Amino acid sequence: MSGHDKELSIAEDAKKMLRLAAEENIETVWDRLHAQEPQCGYCSLGLSCRNCAMGPCRIDPFGEGPQKGVCGADADVIVARNLARAIAAGASAHSDHGRDILEALYHVGRGDTEVYRISDEDKLKTIAGEYGIETENKDVQTIARELAWEMMEDFGTRKEELTFLKRVPAPRRELWKKVGVTPRGIDRESVETLHRTHMGVDNDYVNILLHGLRTSLSDGWGGSMVATEVSDILFGTPKPVASKANLGVLKPDMVNIALHGHNPILSDVIVRAAKDPDLQKLAEEQGAKGINLVGLCCTGNELQMRLGIPMAGNHLMQELAIMTGALEAMLVDYQCIMPAVVEVAKCFHTRIISTFDKAKFTGATHIPFDPARGLEIGKEIVRIGVENYANRIHERVMIPGTPTEMMAGFSVEAIVGALGGSPAPLVDAIKAGKIRGAAGVVGCNNPKIKHDYGHVTLTRSLIENDVLVVVTGCSAVANGKAGLMVPEAADLAGSGLREICKALGIPPVLHLGSCVDNTRILVLAAALANFLGTDIDRLPLAGAAPEWYSEKAVSIGAYVVASGIYTVLGVQPPIFGSPNVVKLLAGGLDDVIGASFAVEPDPEKAAVLIRRHIEKKRAGLGLPSVDPESIPLP
């Protein structure tokens, strides 16, 4: 069991819980990874295929065994098909999330629910304008209904291209058209990926991967962007807000309920339900001082961005949160929820409550969520948590440490607002070299990488060298726990970035939201490119996913690169069984779409790769720069 806590995480709260896991023989994600080792070499290289019943097949990477599958597919085709299918799965997950949010907006527009309302009328009208909807002399409900209907059309195949592509700089749109990767419909591209990768359809690895990029773009500029924008319309566009993070946000004398997953539709009503006077009174009758809500993963990020709800942890903390013995209920929706939480909860009093029919967990209490009855269901769930407080074994409670202060809520609107309503001050700071460039450090946790080490080490190195960092998802939680997301953290930045942050009163690391909110990075990059009258690939920007694990991250990385932003991965993707695929993704794409991938597991070396890239882009724009090769690898 987990005994080497110092080797598994850099977070003090995680280390303490891992020691408890070892003492009590509780299995964690790290134990299960160890039990799987050595993992399948064919799968790790992307050389296994089970797309049809003639297989499963594999290619011998050493050339001594089979070099073609039963159908005749070689390493290039098999690796490309596997990668494309991963992109389609990730894009589908994000886009289905977007569809769920969109359906809630449609119900609001139809008047089918009184649970939700339009929180940002200005944004509703702005987005409606982008969709060509007239808003003059129309009530908010009508606009919401018409916008939701038009957005639903983006999921099908009727349109030649997605509506939000109007935000993309003209040169990039022309490039996509020339290359043939313009996304036409959100669902269409994922369906076509599955069709293309069926045996006997697309057997050209370049063609397969180009459509993979198109599929990812249907996520980044489609499904995920819909999820972000509609969430802002319904729940409010984030503004800077103070919050806290780590397991210390759990309260020993309160009913603790963790909100885990990715969909804010449910968590929004849970926040309201927890304020119900009757439930608050019930909590007191149970001996608690009140009800304390905390976030895990991206559902938590959604609430933190808008309401300042504290974050208990990111992906690899979900089992450890239960092990505190202080959690009455863990409410889950979908995505990134380990089935193992049900097993860990059996060792404690925690109730696991699943809520979406597409995401059931054997052994959990299932309460199907219906937006029309959202508040009623929310109160039912909170009541379960409150009544479970009586079952807490107080002698087993161990809440490690005290919470770390952090700041969240940096939507694009909030960033531009802080700059005085225009990106001009940011552009001026970049031109002057006070900010060398910007990098998005995003993505999941992966037990193959020391927990939070990749995110925090990379971020520290970048801000020390005047690179502004924006973060989402698990990376945001990691950097928040590390103390890098408060204005005082500007003291850790280089002199130029420090000056800008202190003048604006902001951290050097900006929390942009959940995984789907990576689209905020796209919108901001496009706004900068449009302001300068150029394409995104010419800007001193970069992306990084130091600890990624999910298919969603594969889609995100692909759409970031396809949008023109160089991206460094910290975990090796399963493509190295095909040197041709590696060559295309790690360099050949530069000639096709102006950006490419790199793989570097050492975050300090990854920081150097990003800095070298930023300096090349600065030189290309005629800005003061240094010789990229003069930046040494550690």
Give the count of helical stretches: 25
How many whole angstroms does the radius of gyration measure?
24 Å
What distance lies between the first and last C-alpha atoms, to the nearest angstrom? 34 Å
Uncertain segments: none
Overall helicity: 40-55%
Number of strands: 16
Largest sheet: 6 strands, parallel
Shape: globular
Mean pLDDT: 96
SS class:
alpha/beta
Strand content: 5-15%
In the sheet with the most strands, the strands line up as 6-5-4-7-8-9
Concise account of the structure shown:
The protein is α/β, with parallel strands linked by helices and about 625 residues long. It is about 50% helix and about 10% strand.
Could you characterize what this model shows?
The protein has 25 helices and 16 strands. By secondary structure, the chain is α/β, with parallel strands linked by helices. It is globular and about 65 Å long.
